[in-house]
Specification:
The protein has about 525 residues and is an alpha/beta fold. The chain is built from 15 helices and 17 strands. The chain has a seven-stranded mixed sheet, sandwiched between helices. Strand 7, helix 11 and strand 8 form a beta-alpha-beta unit.
Length: about 525
Amino acid sequence: MRERLSLGERVSEDIGIALLVLGGVAVPVGALLYAIVAELRVWALVLIGVGILALIIGVILSREQVTRIISTRQGRYGVNTIVMIAAFTVILALVNVVSAAVNARVDLTANRSFTLATQTQEVLRNLEQPVEAYGFFTPGDEAGIAAEGLLREYALLSDNFTYEIVDPETDPAKASRYNVDQNDVVVFASRDRVTRTRQISEQEFTSNLLLATGTQLRTVCFLTGHGEHSILSTTDVGMSRAKEAMERELYVVRDFGFASSGRVPEECSVVVVAGPDRDLEAEEDGDDEGVLLRNYLGGGGNILFLLTHQTPSSWLILLGEAGIDARRGAVVDPASYAQPDITTPTIRADGYLEGHPITAPMIDRSLVTFFPLVTRVAPLPEELRFPGANVVPLAFTSDRSWLETDMDSLVNPRFDSQQDSRGPIAIASAIEFPVVGDETGRIVAVGNSTFASNQFINSVGNLDLLMNSVNWLTEQEGLIGVRARLNVPRILTLTQRQANWILYSSVGVLPAAMLLVGGWTWWRRR
């Protein structure tokens, strides 16, 4: 049939077929470029448009040839294949566009290692003014790659947060604008504030983000001078990990002593008294330390008391004035303890007070806490409390527990019905009391400090109890929750009944079951 066509018609048909081939290649290539290479999306759209135009013109110029091809069996198969390829390409492009527009990911790691902290997410979602971040790094710098990955996570959570990685050598004007004269610096800039940091970490980035917006960070002050746990110590009995945990939640953490400061520093949002083993002292040329703490509380201050089973009496008297009955001695709980120490009670979901901001998230997640040598910390009767104070117990041991006051018998403690009384025993309490004007003061007292030490703080729910208490004391209830774990070994705590069941079921039940199955099989085949 082609021989019947004139020369011009043949040329037109050849051009049409060439345009069909060109369009058939240009459209899928353009779609793939649009889906895969974000930087070339404009050119990809141009290529797709040119391809579609080529296909339309090609069909018009070679319509008779196209009709003949489609009318054959092979032609129909070819058209069907082209349609499926085009549909697949369009679907692939749509999936990439939707996935780029909608950030939906699932972090399946046990410690949620690839998820920003709840506190950072809250800060970004509540960001009310634009903040720009500039990372000044040379291309290929590992620190720059890490910073860019972290900044990208921030940008996904807020339209008011943008970032840019800048090479100070190729863009010296921007480096000069933010007074950056060296590499490996990240700048956070709002309308009227600029902050800088060289540390690549979520805590550092979020702190600088808040400072750039003018947010004042809260300060946690650890009291020293009475044998308390040190926030600088990295030993098992130190509290350097507690300090790091508080800094991750955007607190400024420092220590202070009355001997040097003569008072509680004004910037302290909360004072932590962590395991004192010496009494409060009376200064010869100044106020009694107990008076200084009472004045701080009277001005609307907040204190977290982490006691021991041998806390000196002056601290117990101070708590008693507020409405807390704190004792000396260690709680023994044979029904619920961390193996193998019966003097280390464990608190499970049914041992927390329902409805309180500190303990409610722990009940929701069924978190366990444990306390080596914990003492009784319970509310006093209402008539003995500070007027207007609201005192509530936060955690209880089981009804089989008792307070052992004979320290010599802790090696092999036994319940004495003549001297001891059964639980439940409150081992943590919280107070909220009125002060001058509409101000209120808050106290949380826990009958143990070891649970927050470096050795135990990252076990089960211990960290959550500590941080929830600090957040409640600083009136940061929005930050209270169950936070991600550090990459540390996790300890399984069992009751005696659970431990016995694991022992007997593995040693007795499973072998017995195998013997029964084997005997039954032998009987059937004999």
